[in-house]
Amino acid sequence: MLAEVDGQETSNGTPRGASNGSRMGEGALAEASGRPLKVPPESTNGLSQNGKTTGHVTSPTYLGHDREEVTRILIQALTDMGYRSAAESVSRDSGYELESPTVAAFRTAVLDGSWAQAEELLEGAVASGSKRSGNGLVLAAGADRNIMRVWLRQQKFLELLERRETSRALMVLRSELTPLCSEQHQKLHFLSSLLMCQSTDDLKSKADWDGAHGESRRILLSELSRCISPSVMLPEHRLAVLLEQVKESQISNCLFHTSPDPPSLYSDHVCDRSHFPSEAVLELDQHAGELWQVCFSHDGTRLASCGMDPCIIIWSVPDFEVVHRITAHQDSEVCNLAWSPDDKMLVTCGKDRYAKIWNTETGALIKTLERFEEPVSSCVWAADCRTFITGSFDKDRSLCQWNLEGEQPYIWTKKHRTEDLAVSPDGHWLVAMDERNWLHVYNFVTRELEYEWDLKVRPTSVSISQDSRFLLVNKTDGEAQLIDIATRDAIQKYRGHFGGEYTIRSGFGGANESFVISGSEDGMVCIWHKLTGIPVQRLEAHHPRCNAVSWNPADPCMFATCGDDQKIKIWSNEPLRPSLAYSASHPNGTGTTQSSANGWRNSREQHLE
Predict the structure, then answer these.
(1) Which domains does the chain have, with CATH numbers?
(2) pLDDT tens digits, 65-78
(3) Residue-wise over 538-574: b if at least 16 C-beta within 10 A, else e?
């Protein structure tokens, strides 16, 4: 990344950086604070009493940290921020260089496109663990010199194609890349296909590459730098990365984290418990039956709910007035709903064996999908906003992808009933939960089954974190489990709620998704700290069950719950306006409870073999 001021050097700094080495006078600092200043002996950094540099460093450490490492990181950070003269002064006063002349020459060669020089310097690099001789390149542990050569030659090949020097590019492909990629037939085939590009724009599009004068060389240097020992070439933006890790650590250790703003570096971070949302500030009771799903829109400005009656209701936030009341599935329960990524559409699915698409701005029906043979249990949108996935008890179409015209681009053929679904926000993972004990995890891009997981106990719901890393599984044994989707490692377990035999939904929420929240068969809503698993709150919510929860993605201090008592409760850390603290009457005036089913309990009992 370019320095903020100069714009000529990379984020990894200049061959020599430096700082002015000056500090606020100790007497002035002591006077400002009104107390004597105590300076550890090792922190004097060779300053005499008059503040002039003596050229002598009293200790190789700085408050227990390696002085050279700290100094080089500071030089890099000053360069990143554009304080180039300060960086040079620090380098001069300390005697430490950000990087050696050889490393600087390698950096310059890559950024200038001097590929022969870059390869020559790479050829002279020594392996990690070798005794460092002179100021040459040192490869990181596990680095593959041949892979680095491939990256350099691939960039060279693309730049020749960009300049329309096709014959030279073909020679690079045949004599330089092919010997290194002899077993990578798919890669060579792809590179060969680029020779047929009719224009520079076509080349950039197909190669997903922005050209020699874009960011491609800097991206290449960044990739190469990961293969070079940090002792000679610092990783990019090292101080910023360390500071980000400090902030993440402080957030992860804050039990009641409610602030969406990043912690200050000036002091240790802590959130007051009184700021945590733990009060039911509003009840909404305009449904005529049990509620099985409540869900905030992605922008947090609306709330949708559904359940035993055939209606879905869309509420505005934060005034919680009814925007649309839609009879979604005539004379049938609405089992689930899902907002599109742009919040302009909803998909609903019902016990009537239909799934439907709705316009959330007008409340109008967009499309009704062809009827399934069994109830439609779940629905979720793909990240592209053009397709969505339904889950059904119909084993022949238990997992289907649909477009907005109601066509099926794909049907997964594995024969299992699907009760719940989740798609990762990055579009990589699709997780299906069957009616037994199994999770089926698919690569949503390739549509291939990645793995299956026997939980040994029946799950009740699945959800995926916003960073697409973690899968949360709620189970009937009263335990929710956090799983790393890619590695399949169990990260954390959450206990204290009751899973029951039917759908009980859980999810992530709060600032930075610091919490896990779940409904419970005993009517409670339970909240845990995500990383530690420590219980944060256990609140009485609904009677007899709390079926679903949803944390407002735009407000870390607001979440919603719903239950068998036909109510939605809005929870916050402060009361809403008095005019909003009302309990609306039922639309049909009856208020009767029809059943204790949660979504399709009866349906499951009727259709399970």
Answers:
(1) 26-94 (no CATH), 101-236 (no CATH), 276-607 (2.130.10.10)
(2) 999 999 999 999 99
(3) bbebbeebbbbbbbbbebbbbbbbbbbbbbbbbbbbe
